[in-house]
Write a structure and sequence with these properties.
alpha/beta; 2 domains; two-stranded antiparallel ribbon; 46% helix; globular
């Protein structure tokens, strides 16, 4: 297929995106799918957050979605959840709630765009009875020490018998002084692991919630913090060895958390997932497959059936973005250069230099050809832009695509960072 044919097909099929009303075509395409996966081409672009928020609001109000689950740590996201559900001991404002996002890169969730979403969710939840309030949860695996601390705090507060078991598990990690790399090296090469301790703790907390369930969401949080500890231990151990294992452990963990959240919310639950395109777009439609990598989009489709999952990719032609020059570096507003010639974003721009929604038809070979599709991480070097394009079969990777022609960096709020 020629580039000209691709551009013409986009022109014929794409819909202009100017207001929330223009999302009608997307809501119609989503239909009754209970899993909606909303991507982003970077972790620092305002429009990706604001349009995902607009889509999420409509899914919640019009289709009864139960929660938003994001590529963030469980403990800090749970504080936003508590704020949005008006728990008595929650933060007083959305700005206070996002102060809990202390792990670098803080800007991913401590930003104006998330504060506005948290305030909207709080207002929405005011009208709903307990048990029907919309939640906000973190799916990620990085918060090993924070999750252990949250477990101990919960067990101390409830006077639970599992407290000593939790302290024993936590004490196993203490010699490593919150250094994941040191723990990973020790576990990988010297067989000095804390695996047994955290697995036993998870089993005990899971059994406790199933038996008693006196404060169901607080007990769920303790259980999922224990799940983080189990999978974070595996993640850091595998990361030292290299290869696809650490990536796969992380994405399997995120799907396991998602599954437990769906089960917790009961029959008829519906989930909105916010993650990078590299997580929500089906890995089988990219070069990740050859590398032995899976991701959330692939796993959810395989487990739930493709008809029950609707994945939306996001991208831009040019603009600005928040990122760092290296891991734990200060955040910067960086320029996103115009898309590389011959890339997916370049084709979208040539089809129309305005914002667009494109719904993919699975019977159109023009969208199945392999083409470079930009992915920007938290570490970014605009001068090496050529390395940021993932070979992708777009209509197999996503069900729809939201294209923003020119984007701007999101607006972070200042927090006291933890570099881990």
């Amino acid at each position: 297929m020629s580039t000209r044919q691709l551009i013409e097909q986009i022109k014929n099929q794409a819909v202009r995106l100017e207001s929330a009303k223009d999302l009608d075509v997307l809501l119609e395409a989503i239909g009754d799918a209970p899993y909606v996966l909303l991507g982003e081409a970077s972790h620092g672009t305002s429009e990706f957050y604001t349009w995902r928020a607009e889509i999420s609001k409509r899914l919640i109000e019009e289709k009864g979605f139960s929660f938003i689950a994001v590529e963030g740590d469980w403990p800090s996201c749970y504080q936003v959840n508590r704020y949005s559900k008006q728990y008595p001991d929650a933060a007083g404002t959305g700005r206070e709630a996002v102060q809990e996002f202390k792990r670098w890169p803080t800007w991913m969730w401590a930003n104006r765009e998330i504060i506005e979403l948290a305030e909207w969710m709080r207002n929405h939840n005011e009208k709903r009875p307990d048990g029907q309030k919309v939640g906000f949860y973190g799916l990620d695996v990085y918060s090993l020490w924070e999750s252990m601390e949250e477990i101990i705090h919960h067990l101390e507060k409830t006077g639970a018998k599992e407290l000593e078991l939790a302290k024993k598990a936590f004490s196993c990690f203490e010699p490593f002084e919150r250094d994941e790399q040191t723990y990973g090296m020790s576990a990988a090469y010297f067989s000095s692991t804390c695996e047994d301790e955290v697995v036993q703790l998870l089993k005990e907390l899971q059994e406790k919630r199933q038996k008693y369930d006196q404060d169901s969401e607080a007990s769920l949080s303790a259980e999922l913090n224990a799940l983080v500890a189990v999978n974070a231990e595996r993640y850091y151990r595998s990361m030292v060895r290299g290869g696809p294992d650490s990536w796969n452990i992380r994405d399997h963990h995120m799907v396991e958390v998602l599954n437990r959240l769906m089960k917790f919310h009961g029959s008829g639950a519906k989930a909105i997932v916010w993650e990078h395109n590299t997580h929500i777009g089906d890995a089988r439609a990219t070069d990740m497959r050859r590398a032995g990598m899976v991701n959330v989009g692939q796993l959810v489709r395989e487990q739930q059936g493709e008809e029950n999952v609707f994945a939306v990719g996001f991208g831009t032609h040019r603009g600005t973005v928040i990122a760092g020059r290296e891991w734990a570096a200060p955040m910067e507003v960086m320029k996103v250069p115009s898309a590389e010639a011959g890339s997916w974003e370049d084709a979208m721009h040539k089809a129309g230099d305005y914002d667009q929604i494109l719904i993919f038809d699975q019977n159109q070979p023009v969208f199945e050809q392999t083409i470079g599709h930009r992915a920007i991480g938290v570490v970014y070097h605009p001068e090496n832009e050529w390395g940021n394009y993932v070979p992708s079969q777009m209509s197999r990777r996503y069900d729809a695509f939201v294209y923003i022609d020119e984007t701007k960096a999101l607006e972070p709020v200042v927090v006291e960072e933890v570099f881990a």
